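User: Fold this one for me? It's 6-phospho-beta-glucosidase BglB.
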Amino acid sequence: MKGFPEDFLWGGAVAANQVEGAWNINGKGVSTSDMQLNGIHGAVTQRDTDVECIKDIAIDFYHQYPEDIKLFAEMGFKVLRTSIAWSRIYPNGDEAEPCEAGLAFYEQLFAEMAKYNIQPLITLSHYEMPYGLVKKLGGWINRETIDHFEKYAVTVFNRYKNQVKYWLTFNEINMSLHSPFTGVGLEGNPDEQQIYQAIHHQLVASARAVKACHDIIPDASIGNMLLGALRYPMTCHPKDMLEMQKKNREWLFFGDVQVRGDYPAWIQRYFSENNIHLDITESDYADLMNTVDFVSFSYYMSGCSTWEPEKYEGSRGNIIRLIPNPHLKASEWGWQIDPEGLRYLLNDLYDRYQKPLFIVENGFGARDVVEEDGSIHDDYRIDYLRQHLIQVKEAIKDGVQLLGYTSWGPIDLVSAGTAQMEKRYGFIHVDRDDQGNGTLIRRRKDSFYWYKKVISSNGEYL
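Assistant: Here's what I get for 6-phospho-beta-glucosidase BglB.
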């Protein structure tokens, strides 16, 4: 393989709770994301109609998606990753019947994408779930939540079986270890026993969704999605090597279960030594054998691990605290830039799982300046993406089977971590600031035209 495959899926990725807005109209219920007014790192706030949040409108994708899809098509997108807001379909999570207005919205969205031959890549749960299931059941700690998720998945598979052929179950499923409310709907300060039990239920639900997808849409592919939290050893000390292996296994565990269909021996040792006793039934083990068709992941940065962390100052990525690598530069948000790490990770994941891979998030957040003539010169974003795509190309030459690449996010959106607009990722600028001021007018950045050339040349132009 000399370069990107002819059928390579180029595109971008967004999430419902970060772009749609329309948080409480047309029957939509309150989601866990709606409770996080200041993002993942903020406190959980009880919502009512008098409390406002920037995500309530976001970039108004709910109403403006035809314009945005047209812009994506102008860039040449082959695929667009987005998510379905579970609480648009089942507002409280446990209704007998789904909300028709919610189902109709996504049907119209997918039809709009089809006009431009853009494939939908749809995440079933992207950092949100109906808050009603948290209030009533306690979130994913309750086994009943599995059934409600399975019902939701079956509903959307049946409704969109002729429109969507690429699916993901849970976004960055391993992040529940670091933000349990966002990932598994656990309020307060849950302990590891509670977190891993909730995670187990979510893994079973993911496997059941895989089976339902295979049964209902035989020509579809369904994958998992990991937060690619790559660690290097801080030094070549053997104890640093073991610490690196431990830290990488913490997130690879989720891939191991979803790809191999069972719990690895090392995590069972960890459970035993940390007094974690999971309720796992025989039917759970049978469900877990329904494994994913491909492995998708996000990649923004890497970090280091050491057995002597007190010697080093930590830095935070979006969710996970990492020890900085002295050989790498960082963005203004402290995210270290490591293109070669993406090549390493692609090879490592492919060697480990021998499944097709899909890079479904990779991007550069920065403060952009709109010039007097309306232009936006974001050479820093182009350079970041170029350097990473060069390494993606090298990984393909290494023999990695890669389905596609969806940059995060092709249009400016609300940050998941901090609920900001000023931390911009897009090829398309949206006129809205952190205080919610602005016209919502869309503008093409320099990176828009660059990415258009990348796609039209199938990655030859970088």
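One thing worth pointing out: Residues 192-216 form the longest helix (25 residues).
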